[in-house]
């Protein structure tokens, strides 16, 4: 089937990134933004955002709901018009580079939507045609995401995860040098999440730079060499995962499961000078320096509290994330003045 057989669909525009991988320049910045901004009527969705994705990165883009991640991605892809700042792709300013500046980019939108009446294979072939890449890849890509069994079934009959998998296959058309994925594992079960993460690692090993947004800190910690945290449209930090986790002042936590009264245990620890205690049922967490662990256990023993189990938990990216954005992060961007 040809492009002309389908009615106009606004989502198609989101995919119109051709995939010819021939425009890498010497510049190591695959994506660079400077002072980028975007307001919707009442909301400052992206505010003075400067970030840099280097060639070969797996770069995780984190932030609470409404932080501006999707808007940033759409700005980068020129799907939304910025109201300030600049964007370079492979060292070329997107205002000067024309359409070719986005060649070789694979994009998975946050909500992949397709024509319900096209089958899985027709959908991929349709996008292959739009992107000007070889249709021969389509069957192979469907197999890669486990959708080959459903090749000739209509998109309208697929579950959310199955649609997402076809979306992933679509983003891989033409062996992109840059993959931009907006919450790629959203809606996928653990098995297909794993498959997708392996695909990302494999593509990266073959030279593809990957920029993806996620809410799953464990996923980001596992995959990424660099991350950025966005909050209310502003960049909070951009660094390596190790630096983001380690740069926090978080101490390791001693997590203890007590057999007796957790309230009594908390009292004993407070009396001993440990103020910052969290309790979940009979499990107590206390931030401690390594020299303080035995003191905590001793205080509990003196108060005759039974200990069922204990372990030390090192600060994680999750701790860092909560530390950077705060427990009471506001959903959405900053409201503009009326
Ligand atoms: N087309 C639009 N019109 C009006 N406001 C919008 C539009 N798109 C985004 N916004 C607003 O911009 C802010 C940022 O939204 P965005 O979708 O970029 O957040 P996000 O970080 O991707 O969130 P999530 O994690 O929930 O996907 C939100 O307050 C949102 O309501
Ligand atoms: Mg989003």
Key traits:
Rossmann fold, disordered N terminus, Alpha-Beta Plaits, alpha/beta, single chain, globular, 15 strands, six-stranded mixed sheet, 2 domains, five-stranded antiparallel sheet, binds magnesium ion, binds adenosine-5'-triphosphate
Brief digest:
This protein has helices spanning 10-15, 69-76, 94-97, 120-131, 137-144, 160-172, 190-205, 217-223, 241-246, 262-271, 293-302, 317-325; strands spanning 29-40, 43-54, 58-62, 84-89, 92-93, 105-108, 178-182, 209-213, 226-231, 234-240, 253-258, 278-280, 283-287, 307-313, 334-335.
What does the model show?
The chain has 338 residues and is α/β, with parallel strands linked by helices. The chain has two domains: 3-246, Rossmann fold (3-Layer(aba) Sandwich); 253-314, Alpha-Beta Plaits. The protein is 32% helix and 26% strand. It has helices at residues 10-15, 69-76, 94-97, 120-131, 137-144, 160-172, 190-205, 217-223, 241-246, 262-271, 293-302, 317-325; strands at 29-40, 43-54, 58-62, 84-89, 92-93, 105-108, 178-182, 209-213, 226-231, 234-240, 253-258, 278-280, 283-287, 307-313, 334-335. A hairpin with a 2-residue loop joins strand 4 and strand 5. The longest helix has 16 residues, at 190-205. The chain starts with 9 loop residues before the first helix and ends with a strand. Mean pLDDT is 87; it is low at 1-10 and 17-26. The structure holds adenosine-5'-triphosphate and magnesium ion. Adenosine-5'-triphosphate is lined by residues 40, 43, 45, 63, 65-71, 110, 332-333. Magnesium ion (MG) binds next to helix 2.
């Amino acid at each position: 089937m040809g492009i002309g057989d389908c009615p106009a669909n606004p989502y198609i525009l989101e995919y119109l990134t051709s995939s010819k991988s021939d425009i890498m320049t010497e510049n190591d910045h695959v994506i660079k933004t400077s002072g980028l901004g975007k307001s919707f009527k009442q909301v400052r969705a992206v505010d003075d955002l400067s970030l840099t994705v280097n060639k070969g990165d797996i770069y995780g883009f984190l932030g609470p709901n409404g932080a501006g991640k999707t808007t940033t991605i759409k700005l980068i892809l020129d799907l939304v018009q910025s109201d300030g700042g600049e964007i370079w792709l492979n060292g070329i300013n997107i205002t000067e580079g024309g359409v070719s500046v986005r060649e070789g980019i694979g994009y998975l939108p946050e909500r992949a939507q397709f024509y319900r009446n096209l089958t899985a294979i027709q959908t991929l072939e349709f996008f292959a045609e739009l992107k000007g890449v070889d249709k021969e890849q389509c069957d192979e890509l469907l197999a890669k995401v486990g959708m080959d069994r459903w090749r000739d079934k209509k998109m309208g009959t697929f579950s959310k995860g199955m649609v997402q998998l076809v979306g992933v296959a679509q983003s891989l058309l033409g062996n992109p040098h840059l993959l931009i994925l907006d919450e790629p594992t959203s809606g996928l079960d653990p098995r297909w999440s794993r498959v997708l993460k392996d695909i990302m690692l494999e593509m990266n090993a073959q030279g593809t730079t990957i920029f993806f947004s996620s809410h799953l800190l464990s996923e980001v910690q596992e995959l990424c060499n660099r991350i950025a945290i966005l909050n209310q449209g502003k960049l909070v930090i951009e660094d390596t995962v190790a630096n983001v986790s380690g740069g926090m002042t978080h101490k390791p936590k001693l997590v203890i499961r007590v057999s007796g009264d957790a309230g009594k245990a908390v009292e004993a620890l407070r009396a001993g000078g440990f103020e910052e205690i969290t309790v979940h049922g009979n499990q107590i967490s206390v931030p401690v320096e390594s020299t303080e662990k035995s003191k905590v256990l001793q205080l509990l023993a003196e108060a005759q509290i039974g200990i069922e189990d204990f372990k030390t938990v090192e600060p994680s990216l999750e701790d860092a994330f909560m530390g950077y954005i705060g427990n009471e992060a506001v959903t959405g961007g900053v409201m503009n003045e009326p």
